[in-house]
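#structure-requests
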Amino acid sequence: MEQPNLITQLTALAHTLEPSHPQAPALLRWAILHIESQNEALEEARQEWASEEAERLRLEQAAYIAQEAIETALAAIKYGQRPPAPEIGRDMVGHINIMAGHGDLDYLNKSGNSIRHVDLREKPPRKKKANAGVTGAELAKRPR
């Protein structure tokens, strides 16, 4: 058995109470109008929510498709690149040192010294002797 809706029940109650309570039908009519107004507002809110939900789902789908496209493009870019050489700078060290030794201006600073010399020694250089920088003639003059 179908249950009657609230507006039908309030209308029946207004007719029942009219002889004994003359103000009741006016109050119940106001309640009926207010309920109908609220039902319309609720229906509009439901329709708006449904359209917003559909729009959100559409945007989510578009964002997902865009993300997939970006990831695919990034994978294609990465696939085309070769891995970086671990010590690519050391391959050119000999050339840099030779060019600086020959006095190429690209490899010298303002004072004429090499600015790009790369020390390739694996061990630290030995300490200089006390006689370093003394010529053979000066050594010969020194007393023994």
